[in-house]
Each structure stands twice: as structure tokens, then as C-alpha cells.
């Protein structure tokens, strides 16, 4: 879902790689007042465990109109299949025969009624295509020309995670562009950073590296409290979530199971986090907490902090992108 600060930690924090985990978080103990429920072989439908073993239908990537041509790449309108829907997006294809390394981009929150195709990560799309990457920016369901899903908000936007996973599968299966299957990464900003966390927790090994900019919290209740609970414009959604699933005190298991932090022990990909100290939307303490949790789970994670940078990077954006391309070169080699 779409501040106090602690003393700054070092600008870069890193832990070494580890073997894939074979187990995830321990079962949540029953809390007073919460009825004890017999264990079920099926995960709850609105949960990250529901995404662990399901089938994904990502494919049928279709290039449409040429939107732009530069000396470095061609930009296409595209669509692909996800969850039985067509999802729109843009595809930047570098010059040359390939096969090229590739990135799937997950954008931040923009009102779906205002969002247009490819919006939200235009600078990154251009930079990365010029660096030689095929770039697939997914619009997600309910955005731009994508198919509709009336239940997306009520299901905690987990459909955006499904659409991003299916974007990776669509890239792998396409014959229209020569993509190197062994060199695919993810990049997300803000809400899209949370989508990236979900993907690498739900489908470890799907990609080879992950980068997030100014991400939301990896603890989903933080995001709900900040943007949904007390927003008068979202009172109907807040009421639905609290009535259907319960508050943290009433339903701790639900909130753990929709939080990627719970499943960081599953993550096998190296992760790079960028966050500005003056972020007015997503407090930097969230990324510090995420970094600590990833390190505790054995994830190969590095966090760069940018003094004075707001949510949308300005002065240090080129530096953050140089660091991103260096990270991708190292891990998508």
C-alpha cells in the first residue's frame, strides 16, 4: 500500500551471499482473543504464501506501436498476459543483436485514474536502456491500457506483485526480443519497491538481482497506517480491510503474511537499496529497518543513503544510477 529518524548508519551496509533458505517464518502464535484455527494445507488467499507455489501464466508479450527511436534504443508500447488479463507497459530495446540483459521495472503509486502508459520511471527507463538493458516497465492491472481487477485494492494490491512476476516470465518466453535468461533483474521505486520485496520473497531465484529506490516499508501495516487508515478519501477501503482482515492486534497472522519482511529468509538475490534522508513520503527509517531485517536473514544487501535527498531523487540521482549500473554489472554479468 502506498518522521522520526535514528542516527545515520554508514552510507553502505553489506552482507555476503548465502545459500537459499529452505524454510520461512515460524507460525504465528495464537494471540488472546484470536480463535485457534486448525492448520490448513492451503495458504490464506490474501497472503504472500499464496504466491509461493501458484502457477504463473506470464507470456504472450506483444510489441505494438513504436513510441520513440533514439540512437541507443527503440521504445515500444507492449502488452503481456498476467492472471488471464492483458497488462500494458513499455519496452525499451537496445540497438544490437543481443541477447541483452533485462530489467523489469515496478513503478510507484500514481492514481490509476491519472496514470498513463509507462509513467513513473521515465528517467530510469532511458538510462538503463542506454546502458544496454532491455527494459520492460509494467503498468500493473487497473492502470493505463491494462485489464481491470475490481478487487485489487481489497486484496492488498498483491495483484501488482503477480503482474510483475508474470512480466519476468513474459520476457523469458518472448521470441520478439533476444533476452538473456540468465541476466534478468528487478527495479522498483516507492510502492514499486514494496512490489520488488514481495517478488523476491515469494519467488526466490526468479531474477538475479533487485534494486529499490525510496521504498515503502517491508512491514505492510506501516504502509496501511500511513496512507490508508486515516485518509478520509479511503475510508471505505480502510473500513473494508479492518472489517475483513482485522487490525494488527486482532489478526497478527494476517499482517505478518502480507509483509515481505516475514519471508526475507527465502530471498536469494542480492539487493541494493537507495534512500534519501529528507524523504517526505517514505521515512528512511523504513529502509534502515528493512536492511537490518535482511542482514539478520542472511540476505546480501547494501543500502546507500543520500543526505538531503527527497523522495524523488534530484541532485544525487545520477550518482544513484551509476551505483545501480555498477551493481547490475556485477550481478548480471
TrEMBL record:
UniProt key word Hydrolase: yes
Gene3D superfamilies: alpha/beta hydrolase
Annotated ranges, domain Peptidase S9 prolyl oligopeptidase catalytic: 123-331
SUPFAM superfamilies, alphabetized: alpha/beta-Hydrolases
InterPro entries, per the entry: AB_hydrolase_fold, FrsA_esterase, Peptidase_S9_cat
A Pfam match: Peptidase_S9
Keyword tags: Hydrolase
Residue ranges of the region described as Disordered: 1-48
GO BP terms in the entry: proteolysis
A GO term, aspect molecular function: carboxylic ester hydrolase activity
Similarity section: Belongs to the AB hydrolase superfamily.
Stated name of the protein: Peptidase S9
Amino acid at each position: 500500500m502506498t518522521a522520526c529518524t535514528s542516527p545515520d548508519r554508514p552510507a553502505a551496509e553489506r552482507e555476503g551471499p548465502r545459500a537459499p533458505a529452505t524454510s520461512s517464518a515460524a507460525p504465528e502464535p495464537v494471540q488472546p482473543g484470536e480463535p485457534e484455527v486448525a492448520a490448513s494445507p492451503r495458504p490464506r488467499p490474501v497472503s504472500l504464501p499464496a504466491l509461493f507455489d501458484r502457477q504463473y501464466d506470464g507470456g504472450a508479450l506483444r510489441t505494438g506501436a513504436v513510441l520513440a527511436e533514439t540512437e541507443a534504443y527503440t521504445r515500444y508500447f507492449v502488452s503481456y498476459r498476467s492472471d488471464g488479463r492483458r497488462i500494458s507497459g513499455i519496452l525499451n530495446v537496445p540497438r544490437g543483436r543481443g541477447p541483452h540483459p533485462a530489467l523489469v521495472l515496478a513503478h510507484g503509486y500514481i492514481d490509476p485514474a491519472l496514470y498513463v502508459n509507462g509513467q513513473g520511471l521515465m528517467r530510469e527507463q532511458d538510462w538503463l536502456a542506454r546502458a544496454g538493458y532491455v527494459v520492460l516497465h509494467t503498468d500493473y492491472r487497473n492502470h493505463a491500457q491494462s485489464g481491470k481487477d475490481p478487487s485489487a485494492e481489497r486484496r492488498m494490491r498483491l495483484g501488482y506483485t503477480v503482474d510483475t512476476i508474470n512480466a519476468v516470465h513474459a520476457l523469458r518466453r518472448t521470441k520478439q526480443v533476444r533476452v538473456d535468461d540468465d541476466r534478468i533483474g528487478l527495479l522498483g521505486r516507492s510502492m514499486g519497491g514494496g512490489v520488488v520485496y514481495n517478488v523476491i520473497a515469494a519467488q526466490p531465484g526468479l531474477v538475479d538481482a533487485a534494486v529499490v529506490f525510496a521504498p515503502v516499508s517491508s512491514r505492510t501495516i506501516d504502509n496501511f497506517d500511513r496512507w490508508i487508515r486515516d485518509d478520509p478519501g479511503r475510508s471505505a477501503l480502510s473500513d473494508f480491510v479492518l472489517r475483513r482482515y482485522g487490525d494488527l492486534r486482532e489478526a497478527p497472522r494476517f499482517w505478518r503474511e502480507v509483509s515481505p519482511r516475514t519471508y526475507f529468509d527465502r530471498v536469494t538475490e542480492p539487493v541494493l537499496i537507495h534512500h534519501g534522508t529528507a524523504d517526505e513520503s517514505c521515512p528512511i527509517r523504513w529502509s534502515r529497518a528493512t536492511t537490518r531485517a535482511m542482514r539478520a536473514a542472511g540476505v546480501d544487501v547494501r543500502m546507500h543513503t543520500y543526505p538531503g535527498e527527497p523522495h524523488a531523487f534530484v541532485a544525487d540521482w545520477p550518482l544513484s544510477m551509476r551505483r545501480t549500473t555498477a551493481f547490475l554489472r556485477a550481478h548480471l554479468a
